[in-house]
Amino acid sequence: MMRLATVLALLLAGCAPTPAKPPPPAPARPTDFESAGREAADLLRELIRIDTINPPQKGSTKKNANETALCLRVQEILAADGIDADVIESAEGRGNLVARIKGSDPSKKGLLMMAHVDVVNVDPDKWTHPPLEAVEKDGYIWGRGALDDKGPAAVSIEAMRIIARRKTPLSRDLVLMLNADEESSGRYGAEFMVEKHRAKVDPAFVINEGGRVMMRGGAVETVSIQSAEKIYNDIKIWIRGESGHSSVPRANNAIYSMARVLARLESHRAPIRINATVAAAYAGQWEREKDAAAAALMRAVAAGDVKAGEELARRDPKANAALRSTFVPTVVEGGIRENVLPPDVLVNVNIRLLPGEKLDDMIETLARVAELPPFATVEVKAGDDWRAALRAWIVGQEEKRRRGAEGVFDAAIVIADRGMDAPASPLENELYRAIEKVAREMSPEAVVTPSMSTGATDSRFWRARGVPAYGLLPLPATDEDLKGFHDHNERVAVSSVGYGVRMMVRIIEEVCR
Predict the structure, then answer these.
(1) Hey, which of 90, 179, 285, 472 would disulfide with 192, CB 3.0 to 4.6 Å?
(2) Which residues make Cβ contacts (< 8 Å) with residue 509, sequence separation at least 6?
(3) How many Å apart are CA 108 and CA 145, to the nearest integer?
(4) Measured on CA atoms in the order 59, 61, 63, 66, is the torsion positive or negative?
(5) Distance of alpha carbon 404 from its chain centroid, rounded?
(6) Do 351 and 359 meet the contact criterion of CB atoms below 8 Å apart?
(7) 178: part of which helix (H) or strand (E)?
(8) Cis? peptide before 55, omega within 30° of 0
(9) Which residues, 6+ apart, have CB-to-CB distance to 13 below 8 Å?
(10) How many helices (H) and strands (E) does the chain have?
C-alpha cells in the first residue's frame, strides 16, 4: 500500500508549473544602412590612401607593392568587431588576408568574398584630384582603386562587420580574402593562396569582381553576373634583322619585316563562337536595346545565329570581344639608336581566348596568317624572366650561326604568360540564385543576366579547380564612371557604396543563414 507521504508528493509534483522554455533569441537590430554606407565609404578612403600600386611607380623606393600594410590595417579593423584574421605573405610586402566567421554546420563549405587590394599605376598630372588622396567631392570618392578593387573590398569588409555585430546565425562559414598582385599575374596573391593555403579558405562558392551594376538615368538598369571570363595570354614575336650603319640600308630590316607581319595579322579575325553565357546575356538584354537593328541582331545571337554574331561583332567592339577570341599588338620594341640598323624587333601580342579554346592553336593560326619564317617556340615557366630566357636563346642562335650549324632561326615566338584554361561557372546553384534574387529585390526594374568578362580576374584560379566563382561589382556605376577603370579620374559614388553594402549583406543572408 502506497504511503500517504508518497501520494502527497506525487500530487504536488503534478501541480508544479512546467519549467519555462528559454526565451527565443532577440531579433537582430535592424542595420542602419545609411550609417553603414558612410562607414564603408570612410574605410574606402583609408584604403585608397595606402599605396599598393603594382608594380611600384617609377622612382619609388619600394621593392614591391606593399599589400601587407593594407592587410594589417584591415586586420586591426576586423579585430575591433571580434573577427579574427590572418595575414599571409607570399613575398616581402605581398600580404594576403583571410578572415572567417564560423557557421553552425561543419558539413557545409563556406562562402568566400574575394577582392584584390593592389592597383594599377597612375599619371598624377592627368588626374583632377590626387589619385592617392581619396578626395570626396560632388558625391564621389576619387582615387585609384575606387572601383578596381578597393571599393568592393571595403564593401565586403563592412558586410562582414555587420554580420559580426548583429551576431547573425550562419549555417556555413563566411570568409573574406583580400589578395595581392591581381593586376600583374595573381602569382603572389590568389594563385599563391589557392596553391599553398587552400585548406585555410576552401569555399563552396566565390564572389569576386567582374560583373556590373549599371546605372542609366539615375536608376539601376542592368545587373550582370560574371560567370565566365576569357583567358589572358601574352606572347612575344621576335624577328632578327641585319644590323649595321644606317648609311648603308640592307634588305633584311627587322622593322620592315615586323611591319609586314603586323599588317597581315591586322586583317585576321578568329571565328565567331556563341557560348551559353553570352547567349543568355543577349537573351536578357535585347529587349532593352534602343537600336532596333542591334536588338534584332542580339536576339538572333541569343538563338545561336553565327551570321548575326558576325554582323554584331562588326558593329560593336564589345560584342566582337564577347563573340570571338581576340589578339592585339600592345608593345613594340626595336632598334638601339638612330644611326644603327635594328638588329631585331620584338612585339607583344595580347591574346584573349574564349573558354575552351587553346593557345597553341591560336599561335599556329597567327604564324600561318602572318607568314612568319620558320620559327622556334621559347616557353617560359610562370614566374621566370622571359627577357633572360629570350636573350639566352638568341646567344645560342648566334653561336650556332658562327659555327655554321643547323637549326638556326630568324624568328621566335616566346610564350611569356600562358593563361589558365578556366571553365565557366554554372548558372544554377545557391550563390547564383541568391545574387539574382537580391538584385531583383533591390532593383525590380533591372535586367539581371549572366555575363562573360573579356578581362581576366582572380576567379580563374578557383574555377580551374572546380569551385564556382561569380563576378559582381556591387557598386552601381554609369558608363562615365567605368571609364576610370585603369584610367585617370577613377571614382565611385558615395551612394553606390551604401547600395553595395546592403547588397552584400543580403547575399550573405541568402547563402549562409
Answers:
(1) 90
(2) 168
(3) 33
(4) negative
(5) 49
(6) yes
(7) strand 174-179
(8) yes
(9) none
(10) 17, 19
Take residue 299 and report the three cell numbers written for it.
536576339
CA distance 110 to 479: 34
Print pLDDT tens along the chain (513 aa).
Answer: 444 444 444 444 444 455 555 555 455 566 889 999 999 999 999 999 999 999 999 888 899 999 999 999 999 999 999 999 999 999 999 999 999 999 999 999 999 999 999 999 999 999 999 999 999 999 999 999 999 999 999 999 999 999 999 999 999 999 999 999 999 989 999 999 999 999 999 999 999 999 999 999 999 999 999 999 999 999 999 999 999 999 999 999 999 999 999 999 999 999 999 999 999 999 999 999 999 999 999 999 999 999 999 999 999 999 999 999 999 999 999 999 999 999 999 999 999 999 999 999 999 999 999 999 999 999 998 778 999 999 999 999 999 999 999 989 999 999 999 998 889 999 999 999 999 999 999 999 999 999 999 989 999 999 999 999 999 999 999 999 999 999 999 999 999 999 999 999 999 999 998
| CB of 98 closer than 8 Å to CB of 177 | yes
Closest Cα partner for 134 from 124, 142, 122?
142
* C-alpha cell belonging to residue 459: 576567379
* Gap between the Cα atoms of 127 and 175, Å rounded: 35
Residue 386's nearest CA partner among 419, 413, 422, 355 is 413
How many Cα atoms sit within 13 Å of 313 on the Cβ side?
21
The CATH code for residues 33-209+473-512 is 3.40.630.10
CA distances from 463 to 199, 269, 478 (A): 16, 28, 29
Helix (H) or strand (E) run with residue 482 in it: helix 479-482
**Residue 400 is placed in which grid cell?**
650556332
Name 377's bridge partners.
Answer: 413
Q: 2 CB contacts (<8 Å, ≥6 apart)?
A: none
- Grid cell for residue 195: 596553391
Sign of CA dihedral 207, 212, 215, 220: negative
**Quick one: 13 exposed, middle or buried, by C-beta within 10 A (0-12, 13-18, 19+)?**
exposed
Tell me the C-alpha distance between 322 and 424, whole Å: 14
Asked whether 115 and 178 are in contact (CB, 8 A), the reply is yes
What SS3 class is residue 14?
helix
Instruction: List, edge to edge, every strand of the sheet that includes 491-493.
Output: 135-137, 140-142, 491-493
User: For the chain, which residues make up each domain, given as ranges?
Assistant: 33-209+473-512, 274-324
- Are residues 491 and 484 in contact, defined by beta-carbon separation less than 8 angstroms? yes
Rounded Cα–Cα distance for residues 178 and 117 (Å) = 6
Q: Is 405 exposed, middle or buried (0-12, 13-18, 19+ CB in 10 A)?
A: exposed
**Helix (H/G/I), strand (E/B), else coil: 455:** coil
